[in-house]
What does this fold into?
Amino acid sequence: MSRMNGARAVLKTLSSGGIDVCFSNPGTSEMHLVAGMVATAEMRNVLCLFEGVATGAADGYGRMARKPASTLLHLGPGLGNGLANLHNARRAGTPLVNIVGDHATYHGPFDAPLNSDIEAMARTVSKWVRRTEQVADAGRDTAEAIAAARTAVGHLPGGVATLVLPSDVCWSEGGLAAPIPAVASPAVDGHEVERIAKILLGSERCLLLVGGDNMRRSGLTAASRIAEATGADLLAEKSPARHERGAGIPPVDRLPYPRDPAAARLAGARHIILAGARTPVAFFAYPGKPSTLIPDGCEVHDLGAAPEALGYLAELVAARTSPVTADPRRPGMPSGALTAEKAAAVLGALLPEAAVVVDEAITSDQWLPEATAGAPVHDWLNITGGSIGMGMPVATGAAVACPGRPVISLEADGSAMYTLQALWTQAREQLDVTTVIFNNGSYAILDGEMQRVGAFSGAEVDRSRSFIDIPGLDFVSLANGMGVPAGRARTAEELASQLRRALAEPGPHLIDAVVPPVTS
Amino acid sequence: MSRMNGARAVLKTLSSGGIDVCFSNPGTSEMHLVAGMVATAEMRNVLCLFEGVATGAADGYGRMARKPASTLLHLGPGLGNGLANLHNARRAGTPLVNIVGDHATYHGPFDAPLNSDIEAMARTVSKWVRRTEQVADAGRDTAEAIAAARTAVGHLPGGVATLVLPSDVCWSEGGLAAPIPAVASPAVDGHEVERIAKILLGSERCLLLVGGDNMRRSGLTAASRIAEATGADLLAEKSPARHERGAGIPPVDRLPYPRDPAAARLAGARHIILAGARTPVAFFAYPGKPSTLIPDGCEVHDLGAAPEALGYLAELVAARTSPVTADPRRPGMPSGALTAEKAAAVLGALLPEAAVVVDEAITSDQWLPEATAGAPVHDWLNITGGSIGMGMPVATGAAVACPGRPVISLEADGSAMYTLQALWTQAREQLDVTTVIFNNGSYAILDGEMQRVGAFSGAEVDRSRSFIDIPGLDFVSLANGMGVPAGRARTAEELASQLRRALAEPGPHLIDAVVPPVTS
It folds into this structure.
């Protein structure tokens, strides 16, 4: 058994667990992990200028690679900066090994300036948190973190495991690499699936709500067959972490974001059958409106966490039924002054084969699903936890995970400004990411929300602009400032020509697409 | 008693507590607070594009205004983005009322996508946390938050009070504005001061360590008199939140950042007397080196939290002694290719009267104290908690607090990229902030830390550049992209001419000062 320090034991265990990418923003307390990564050269270091980029990139990587990346963050404040995108990863069920360096174990009681309660912070976004206190445990704790990150819980395929590593644990000798514990896959509950099959074959109105891992070709194919065979309504969760779609794949509408249209979409269902989705709830509470979206008298049934359950259900109720799939079709190329609707058409017309689309276009995204429904097969990644600032980091990580695939990052101006530093990593790594900013000069979503919460009189709506308008952002300058070539599009033609060029050239590009605001 | 909703009760109480500035980044759950701010127009809304800007600005505001600003953040992820700068505010003891909107009380159990444990997250950076559960308590809880923010604890003059406001508490009728509880000032422990006076008048070697509120003219004057009269060594804490200095004010060295020089500076002291400072500790732990900086056999004495204690001590031991004050002097204007040292001289030569300097220049800052020691009186604000990304937000808040004073924000390229969005708020509010980026293309501090932790062999140091070099950042483009006029300086002459112009013109400016790296 070779002698090694704790940092080497951590890295060796990560390597044996198949983790070979680290999205990092380290500091002094992580220097022995950095030294180990430099010495062993088994881990690809993707440096990020802000921790929210690192955690969001690890989320995007995990969604596409279907295995964890690691992060490397510096103490409590570093973790703090990464929390918002860890929140999204938590809701996505993304496997992710979140490594946070800490002061040496004996340094804690001195409460040095950077000291804080890292574990309390980590628990708010993690399914598993551990602080390693002894160098002998460094490998074992890493192995358990990897297993925890890959273990399904409820409807989620994995999650965020946070490992807090004090600096003396990393620098002390006595580390041992550890084997990764076996990860149990969720089992199909055959009796429950058979019970649900009977409901579907009965006469009461059913709605099949798909989500999670069932948002890929095989799950959607099974779901479509079930819907065709039984007449059940087919719908997807609001924000799937990863949705495979396009020509040849069964199409599915997603639950709307605003509460009332969402409730209307579910109205009339006597049974809602969850296939990888959670029980749907209103995204926000509104005065006088219930939080639940489940119609009165409707029963909710759950196929459980095993993706195979949906296939078994299809065998039971739709053995001889074919799925309905999307036909290949592209919208016509629009012209003239750009709008969000025309931008969607341009994207639909040009979306390349095997694209990975990351969608944080917020209010500008409403025409995108239809415009891209018949495009070549692609993956569509959404904001799972509602925490904005995920798009550009997730696109960065997806590009690291899928070097052969074009990544298209659809951003809103407001959300882009949370984690814009992702562009620097895209430039440094020469990632093939094309960012389109739907730049409407405002937090347009708040326009709609102000109306929905009913808080404003007429005159106050005007005065509220100080909270909504965000003028003066020039994303061409901002992208150039981080080494990303960029252009501005004010017409559909300009967007099309710039998008064509960006897709044809390697490396990152950005298009500042100037559009009028859309109220959601 | 007028009828009002919870949001109005919160705002009326904030107003009666003297809080009239809110650094905001709200969302749906905060819309009734927004509506109330719009309707009553008693609160200045300073919109920030990222929550770390809002919390850092509130820190800068509180340090300069010596009263709290409020923030307005959106749920757990919004708080998460603000945590790093709240950590600095916590260490600074800045009075700050941190308002976080939450889902409606009845919406929580549905665990909607944005739901998370806000209070657990808040406790990691707050001295006081409360979630208001009933509209009738909204005013009272706000009043108690204000009092908590203003109450001294230990050596800190105030702190972060986090108030979590569910949306239904804000929109429900039945709010009551509440009076602000009286805040007790810390009392001088006369016997303890007299005991310490005897030690100072004895023959053993004493070191007076000043910090906190004693870093202003009156405290430093008392400290200087004591040192002159008794022969005590005079030193300041490493990172005072606000340090008043310049010609006519007693000069004081600050404890060095690296562990060994810090320990050397304290060596030989038989008594360390704390005057608003904490017991000094090593900033980080290093293999084989103790965390404490206190020499063996040295006793630590504490004058307590009351700033008046130092004045009383001066009366006891230095009644007839005058302070030593800094003479007016400016460095000569340098010329030629820019270095961090020459940039410091340019700043010292041009620093205007009553400037507020925010220092996050990291490794480039080592020549600044000497170069500005004899400049006109100014305030110098430091990184109190070691969490980088504080500089530009703190400068933003300081400018809001001090509209008549020029604010100079000294930044490093690495730290600037954490919260660069502050520039947009500076442009929108037309704040008189001049940002100088010491752009050395690297996380230069890690160069020094790698050596100090002893983790790298020769060849590995080269390979470690993937963690250290951050090339390709063009801060002129980045600033222009947010509406801030900017220029690049490669020589001392260029820096001087651009700095003169920036100081002469109103509104924000940025200078991208290209310098070679300095190893700390």
In short: Residues 75-92 of chain B form the longest helix (18 residues). Chain B has a mean pLDDT of 96. The two ends of chain B are 61 Å apart (CA to CA).
